[in-house]
């Protein structure tokens, strides 16, 4: 029964997406009007008795015809119709006419592409992860093309249900073109439909339906990416084409396990990260040469280490081993270069080597938002604030959901508090319950001298995430800086009590001591954090929260340990 209900729900969603429901309703209203007119006019014009019956019959016959046409053509309020993907597999992919591929004048960003989550039209709800995997792999392929700006998966995910119109979605994502599609999997067969929409003209630049064996899924993903590049007239270098055409694994079951692992990892919870490692390890058991699965393990362990869920020494060691293995299997894997660069920054404090890895990751995948973000953090740690702001702005453009506060934070570190305030306000408008956004907005207010508003935002961040030691410690620091010493000491006592029960980063405790003006105690905690590689201690010199320590002799010695002095 649940499968039947799911199937009906999916069908109704597809009917809504293709505007079938709205078209049928409009047709029914119009037909009813015609029948009422015929009923009144026919007797007065001495028409045959069966005239009205004929009108009714024609209206009923026309209903399925209109519904069928609406299925094939997305009827929208804008001029012109939009043709849906062809219902049958063509002998070869269609070429895109030059006129259709020509960018429309005045379009916001013709080379900015957003891939909306592919709809799962399979009867089995468990195939949802497979449809999501197709989406992310197409994004990954497109991200390897230097001439395109590709919006990341995190930012397109909220638009999965298509509750907004395509133009509204494009405006929210800053994209001039959208790729939408669907996946239907039955046994060993898969049907994937994809359509590339120009939002200015509201016309399809390219559309295709693939009806293939499941083993052809990698070839389909490659073909979609190449046709999008052709439609947007993006020139591909030979190396870009080679990377796009490379299959990640020859084992389909391993690929499915990898997709499940990736879906668990991007939940960004401790349980999700641990679960993802299990899936990745199972994928590697089936294909020991699966480089992407090793990279997934590396990313999961790095995140567990920075969150304090696994002791940093263990987490970063395992992350490094997995990243090195991934690169030995595929030296051109951008994800592995990115995570290895981060490990060289947070564990080795080897800034030149980390920078080279970030640069290499961006050469291989220019639209990798995480690489831009982590590279920006490295620049901030070194005091290169203008570069950091530019990189975080790029990360935000590529993934405005995942990096919605990183740009504001970079502006705060650069001392550009007025701009940071605007960016932080946008972040909380998008998601009023985002704890990091509230904390960032709080510090932007404080830097602008708006103390009451700043403290209120930090208090809200703590209430939204009461288990976070970072926001609680930052609130303690803000209290101390603004004369509420007793409240700050109460928070300090709470953090010390928590540390007897669970891990509390000494980096966070240092916030409160800095606010209280106890600089030696703050540096004591920072030295512990350096030894542990705890939290974000690698970025201490770029943080405005520790500016009061900069003149302390022990602080200079601390920077030497970080290879920053």
Q: Alpha-carbon distance between the termini?
A: 66 Å
Name of the top-level CATH class of the domain at 82-247: Alpha Beta
The fold-level CATH name of the domain at 82-247 is Rossmann fold
Alpha-beta classification: alpha/beta
Global shape: globular
> Which regions have little confidence, pLDDT < 50, spanning 5+ residues?
1-7, 72-110
Query: What is the assembly state of the chains in this entry?
Result: single chain
Mean pLDDT: 83
**Beta strand %:** 5-15%
Number of helices: 26
Largest sheet: 6 strands, mixed
Q: What is the percent of helical residues?
A: 55-70%
Please count the beta strands (DSSP E, at least 2 residues each).
Answer: 8
Query: Mind telling me the C-alpha Rg?
Result: 28 Å
Instruction: Please give the CATH architecture of the domain at 82-247.
Output: 3-Layer(aba) Sandwich
Task: Specify the CATH homologous superfamily of the domain at 82-247.
Answer: ABC-type transport auxiliary lipoprotein component
């Amino acid at each position: 029964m649940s499968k039947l209900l799911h199937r009906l729900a999916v069908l109704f969603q597809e009917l809504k997406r293709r505007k079938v429901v709205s078209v049928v309703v409009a047709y029914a209203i119009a037909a009813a009007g015609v029948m009422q007119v015929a009923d009144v006019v026919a007797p007065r014009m001495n028409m045959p008795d069966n005239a009205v019956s004929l009108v009714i019959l024609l209206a009923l016959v026309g209903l399925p015809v209109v519904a069928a046409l609406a299925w094939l053509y997305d009827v929208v309020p804008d001029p012109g119709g939009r043709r849906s993907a062809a219902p049958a597999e063509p002998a070869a992919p269609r070429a895109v006419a030059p006129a259709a591929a020509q960018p429309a004048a005045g379009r916001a960003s013709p080379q900015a592409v957003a891939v909306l989550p592919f709809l799962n039209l399979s009867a089995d709800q468990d195939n949802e992860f497979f449809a999501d995997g197709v989406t992310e792999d197409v994004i990954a392929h497109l991200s390897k093309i230097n001439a395109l700006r590709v919006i990341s998966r995190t930012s397109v995910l909220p638009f999965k249900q298509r509750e907004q119109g395509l133009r509204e979605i494009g405006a929210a994502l800053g994209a001039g073109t959208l790729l939408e599609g669907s996946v239907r999997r039955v046994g060993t067969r898969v049907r994937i439909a994809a359509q590339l929409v120009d939002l200015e003209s509201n016309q399809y630049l390219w559309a295709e339906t693939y009806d293939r064996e499941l083993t052809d899924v990698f070839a389909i993903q490659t073909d979609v990416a190449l046709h999008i590049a052709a439609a947007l007239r993006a020139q591909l270098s030979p190396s870009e084409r080679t990377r796009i055409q490379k299959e990640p694994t020859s084992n389909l079951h391993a690929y499915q396990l990898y997709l499940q692992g990736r879906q668990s990892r991007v939940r960004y919870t401790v349980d999700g990260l641990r679960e993802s490692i299990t899936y990745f390890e199972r994928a590697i058991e089936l294909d020991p040469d699966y480089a992407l699965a090793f990279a997934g393990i590396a990313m999961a362990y790095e995140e567990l280490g920075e969150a304090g869920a696994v002791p940093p020494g263990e987490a970063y060691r395992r992350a490094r081993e997995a990243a090195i293995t991934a690169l030995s299997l595929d030296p051109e894997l951008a994800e592995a270069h990115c995570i290895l660069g981060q490990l060289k920054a947070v564990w080795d404090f080897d800034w030149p080597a980390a920078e080279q890895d970030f640069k290499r990751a961006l050469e291989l995948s220019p639209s990798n938002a995480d690489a831009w973000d982590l590279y920006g953090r490295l620049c901030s740690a070194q005091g290169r604030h203008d570069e950091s702001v530019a990189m975080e702005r790029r990360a935000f453009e590529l993934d405005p959901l995942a990096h919605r506060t990183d740009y504001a934070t970079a502006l705060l570190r650069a001392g550009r508090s007025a701009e940071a305030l605007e960016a932080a306000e946008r972040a909380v408008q998008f998601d009023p319950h985002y704890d990091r956004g509230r904390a960032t907005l709080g510090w932007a207010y404080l830097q602008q001298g708006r103390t009451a508003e700043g403290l209120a935002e930090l208090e809200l961040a703590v209430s939204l995430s009461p288990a976070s030691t970072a926001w609680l410690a930052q609130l303690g620091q803000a209290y101390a800086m603004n004369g509420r010493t007793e409240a700050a000491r109460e928070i300090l006592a709470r953090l010390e009590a928590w540390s007897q029960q669970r891990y509390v980063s000494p980096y966070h405790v240092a916030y409160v001591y800095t606010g209280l003006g106890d600089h030696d105690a703050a540096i004591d905690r920072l030295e512990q954090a350096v030894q542990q590689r705890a939290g974000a201690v690698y970025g201490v010199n770029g943080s405005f929260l520790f500016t009061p320590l900069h003149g302390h002799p022990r602080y200079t010695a601390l920077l030497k340990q970080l290879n920053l002095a």
